[in-house]
Design brief:
heterotrimer; A alpha+beta (394); B alpha/beta (169); C mainly alpha (318); A: alpha+beta; three-stranded antiparallel β-sheet; 13% strand; C: 318 residues
């Protein structure tokens, strides 16, 4: 009887391929009519084995691998890694480099939050906001390209510093860009707090109380929207943050609207920081020398990614290769919270609740496993894969 | 409260289970405890005293290397090495890490999910990738690895050098 | 313009049939282009809907297991046929309708609802979960907007005392005051009801892609999907024609028709890009708590006004 009841459950699968998700993840929502009664997650569709891969590379190569953990917040990964290696080697990057690291990190936060604003609006069926915020995001993407030469994987870091400098023309471009974006952001804040239909989809939806947020370990803007005062930039300043401090933005409401408001207000904070860094950029060198072999030891490197605290545990065995790099990305912390808050809501709210934590699947998944053309599963190593790529494009 | 006071507080809380303490960095304390004490220690730290939050669970593989005299090759003794599970608790800038050493032959530890449901993801990840068995963890489905991944193969162990290749047709 | 076409030509070529299909595609293009421009995008080229349609016709049609095959194939044809039939009594492009009889307003309105019914059935016919959720939502939405929409369309009919579409059209042209001014609630209810009927944003919960992929039509591919799509385009033309002829002072020339319908299309496109998608319970709430009551009040006022007008008119010096 029980088994029969179980099979009669009406399960709506979302993913691995689904229009709501721009990246592969799989969720199963058990629904009763329109009400969600249970939710489970399955990740790993883009697992690439990076934690294992980095053990076979030297410290410098590792930087470029870790930068590719995530396509959206690539800089914070490289920064966390570089800061960790510098801590292990017991050296300090020069102040100018630290300030530039913070500058790029804040630009990246702007790009990520604007991207999220668009995606979340799209999940709620508000395509106009989606199109507008993504158009404005181009401004910051162009700025990043002007500074670093790349739109996505900026590759601004090297071990011991940064490889880019900011000249006066770029400073002007940054100031102009921030002015434009600030103007636009004011408009978006007005839209998400005043538009009636949009509020109908966000206010009192997906509420996570302070107690829940604390217990479930919600971090980043998701946690801060529930009143959790956690921000690594404030708690344990790194890179340029001791010199250019940031103000923490929180809200007590804990619903989707609060997550919108917190992220948009963080944008203001980022604009302010970018202006401040541009105005008071310290002089000096960009890099210091880092030895090829890193002394034995274990460090923890924490940085605040756009989605929350990014946690790196790094262990060196005294050679030129890392012994173990453990990456804990912010999305992983927030999954627990989203699956718990989902229960009891309407199916129509699911995409927005999912998007509310700004999930990033690539961040979670790091092994390569390729299903061949036949049903049999083949495992290819790096060399095979490279060979395949070369053959394919010949 | 500054970082050192916070750390002192954490040390006080878990004092009765502590085997030894080390200080790898200024703002960190590594507290070694026995596997059987993990539940009371986490409960005291997180539930009773609200000291910070669980930031991550790291699985470490520390194999016992034996160096072959002739070829100078490092070989791994499959029985002697140990796994380590690290529970990182963060409170502002302070990080207290509960470290548990587990022998390969008995890599089992109690799950802390009943106190902290969100630990499920960390435990599943450690379970799949490094092969620590968490007793009574609520969900044991694969989180990251494919469904047809062979049992007993843990990719983050040092012995893992890739699955055996099937002949390509 | 009182040109009468021979029935066969009217049915197959102009103004029904082929020309109607063409204008349906053109309206879809306009709608998409306008929405795109409102959203700061470039939008499709003029032949995009036609290209889409041809591509869909050429594609393989997959009939999923567990469905009633005949129903699966017949439903899109039925939906398109209903939409085409609905066009027959409507003064398309300002020409006299092909078939005009007393009470054709009710028949046309029900033919317009046929599309939603077919979509609901099509969704319920498959075993796909997204389709079933989509079908439930489509039918729920049908029940919420249908009554207010019907009442809104009856407003001008009752005011003019005839239920014949072409007579209402003629009557509307002779009114000194357009019905949009004298019955603004009815106009809004009709326009928004049409958007609900066509599942345009913000009433696109039945096919909300981020939740249930393509809703009831998730399993449809190729020909069936193409027919549903073009059927919906024709509904757009017929619906806009009806509203324009009732509320925007009717029309007697094609030029009159064109500008009035395009103004309506502009308004719907703006409404589509202004709002976030409503959840299905919000849609139902909106229609029954606000829409239906307002339209009902207006209808009562019209009837009261009609009964009293013989007595009031002399007082106003008319």
């Amino acid at each position: 009887m029980e088994a029969k009841q179980k099979s009669e459950k009406f399960i709506v699968p979302i993913g691995p391929q689904h229009p709501a998700l721009k990246e592969p993840g799989h969720f199963e929502f058990t629904v009763d009519g329109e009400i969600v009664t249970n939710a489970t997650a399955r990740l790993g569709f883009v697992h690439r084995g990076m934690e294992k891969g980095v053990e076979d590379r030297n410290w410098t190569q590792g930087l470029y691998l870790m930068e590719r953990v995530c396509g959206i917040c690539s800089h914070v990964h490289a920064m966390a890694y570089a800061l960790g290696v510098e801590k292990l080697a017991n050296i300090q990057a020069p102040p100018r480099a630290q300030a530039i690291r913070e500058l790029v990190a804040e630009l990246e936060r702007i790009h990520s939050h604007l991207l999220w604003l668009g995606v979340a609006a799209h999940e709620g069926g508000f395509d106009t906001l989606f199109m507008f915020s993504w158009r404005d995001r181009e401004t910051v993407m162009d700025l990043l390209e002007t500074i670093t030469g790349n739109r996505v994987n900026y590759s601004a870091n090297v071990l011991g510093g940064v490889k880019i400098d900011i000249n006066d023309a770029q400073k002007d471009a940054l100031r102009r860009g921030m002015d434009f974006l600030e103007e636009r952001t004011k408009h978006y804040l007005k839209v998400v707090t005043e538009d009636e239909t949009f509020l109908g989809r966000t206010r009192k939806i997906g509420v996570m109380t302070f107690e829940e947020a604390t217990l479930l370990g919600a971090i980043g803007p998701t946690g801060r929207a529930s009143g959790v005062q956690r921000d690594v930039r404030v708690d344990s300043p790194y890179a340029g943050y001791p010199d250019f401090p940031v103000n923490i933005v929180t809200s007590d409401a804990g619903d989707l609207e609060a997550r919108f408001v917190v992220r948009i207000k963080e944008l203001y904070e980022s604009y302010r920081l970018v202006r401040e860094i541009v105005d008071h950029l310290p002089g000096g060198d960009l890099t210091v020398k880092v030895p090829r072999r890193i002394p034995e030891g274990e460090v923890i490197s924490r940085v605040e990614a756009p989605r929350g605290e990014l946690f790196y545990f790094m262990k060196s065995n005294g050679t030129d290769k890392p012994e173990r790099i453990k990456v804990r990305t912010p999305s992983l912390c927030n999954w627990g919270s989203v699956l718990t808050t989902a229960i009891g809501h309407k199916l129509a709210d699911m995409p927005m609740i999912l998007a509310g934590i700004d999930p990033c699947f690539s961040c979670n998944d790091r092994l390569v496993m390729i299903n061949g053309k036949k049903t049999e599963t083949q495992v290819w190593d790096w060399e095979d894969l490279r060979q395949y790529g070369i053959e394919y494009y010949k | 409260m500054d970082t050192q006071e916070l750390l002192q507080q954490a040390l006080e809380i878990v004092k009765e289970w502590t085997i030894e303490v080390s200080q790898p960095e200024e703002n960190r304390r590594d507290i070694y405890i026995e596997a059987r004490d993990i539940k009371p220690a986490v409960k005291a730290l997180l539930i009773d005293n609200h000291w910070g939050y669980l930031s991550a669970i790291t699985g470490l593989d520390s194999p016992d290397y034996q160096i072959d005299e002739e070829t100078k090759e490092r070989k791994i003794d499959p029985d002697k090495g140990k796994l380590e599970v690290l529970y990182h608790f963060c409170n502002r800038a302070a990080i207290a890490t509960l470290r548990v050493r587990l022998p390969y032959t008995d890599a089992e530890i109690d799950s802390i999910c009943e106190m902290l449901p969100s630990a499920s993801f960390y435990e599943r990840e450690a379970m799949e990738l490094i092969g620590v068995n968490f007793r009574n963890t609520p969900i044991t489905d694969h989180l990251i690895l494919p469904e047809n991944w062979p049992a007993g193969v843990y990719p983050l162990r040092k012995t893992f050098k890739g699955l055996e290749k099937k002949t390509q047709g | 313009m009182n040109i009468t076409f021979p029935s066969l030509i009217a049915l197959l070529l102009f103004p029904g049939g082929l020309f109607l299909l063409g204008s349906g595609l053109f309206f879809e293009y306009l709608d998409r282009k306008l929405v795109a421009r409102f959203q700061n995008r470039i939008g499709p080229r003029w032949f995009q809907p036609l290209a889409d349609f041809i591509k869909l016709l050429a594609k393989e049609e997959v009939i999923p297991a567990g469905t009633i095959k005949s129903l699966f194939i017949l439903l899109p044809i039925f939906a398109l046929a209903a939409a085409l039939t609905a066009a027959l009594s409507v003064p398309l492009f300002g020409f006299k309708p092909v078939f005009s009889y007393n009470g054709d307003l009710i028949v046309t309105l029900y033919l317009l609802s046929m599309m939603t019914l077919c979509i609901g059935l099509a969704g319920a016919n498959t075993e796909d979960r997204f389709s079933i959720v989509g079908a439930t939502r489509a039918l729920t939405q049908l029940f919420s907007y249908e009554a207010p929409f019907l009442l809104a369309m009856l407003g001008p009919a009752i005011a003019l005392g005839t239920w014949n579409i072409s007579l209402i059209n003629q009557g509307a042209t002779q009114q000194s005051l357009w019905f949009i001014v004298s019955q603004p609630i009815g106009f809004l209810a009709a326009l928004i009801g049409l958007m609900g009927k066509l599942e345009l944003p913000p009433f696109d919960a039945p096919e909300a892609e981020t939740e249930i992929v393509a809703g009831a039509l998730t399993e449809y591919s190729g020909r069936g999907f193409g027919l549903f799509k073009i059927g919906r385009d024709i509904e757009l033309v017929v619906g806009l024609t009806l509203i324009a002829s009732f509320y925007l002072g009717g029309f007697s020339t094609p030029l009159d028709f064109l500008w009035k319908v395009f103004v309506l299309l502009l308004i719907t496109a703006a409404l589509q890009s202004l709002f976030a998608r409503l959840r299905i319970d919000q849609t139902v709430g909106l229609w029954w708590r606000i829409g239906a009551i307002l339209v009902l009040c207006q209808l009562v006022l019209i009837i009261v006004g009609n009964t009293l007008s013989p007595f009031i008119a002399p007082l106003l010096g008319g």
